[in-house]
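Journal club side-thread
Mid-discussion, someone asked how the predicted structure for our own chain would compare to the paper's figures. Pasting it here so we can look after the session.
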Amino acid sequence: MIRILTLLSLTVLALSSCGPKLSPFTQRLYEEQGWEEQDLRRIQFYLSEDVVLQRELRSGNSQIRNGTVRVINGRDVEQVVFRRNTPGVFIFSPKTQRVAISFEDDNDNFLVFGPNPKNGDRYTLLASDWERDNGTITYAGRDWKVSSADAFASLLIPLKRLREEDRRGRVVGGRKI
């Protein structure tokens, strides 16, 4: 039994270390690398946290496209859920220090992120208006509410940093007669 648990633990550890190391996408990193829009299009972005958008449906308006309908306190509510580590792609930059990231095949469905000084200048989810409990986000041409707990959902990117000595070193191939 102990051997099985040990083997299982080693297998889980080996598999979990195979994935890419994700690092926060920050304003500092963006500036240091000098990335242009064409560079951002080649980067795979990921969400750091779950994000749940919801909007209340009016009676007779039950056409659902991207989400699910839930009854909350007697109201019909449509939800769109973005799970943690959902991959997304850069679509465009609506203005300076803003990126629109799409997590679906439709480029019209995107979330906007920007640097947040309260979160180490990480690119976090932006809303047009943050209130105490929620914020308002435009997604797929409609206004949605997002919980204030989702305010710190940020973008992650796979980033492989080389150690300082790796950049200054060299590999010698040898010499033959």
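Post-session note: DSSP finds four helices and 13 strands in the chain.
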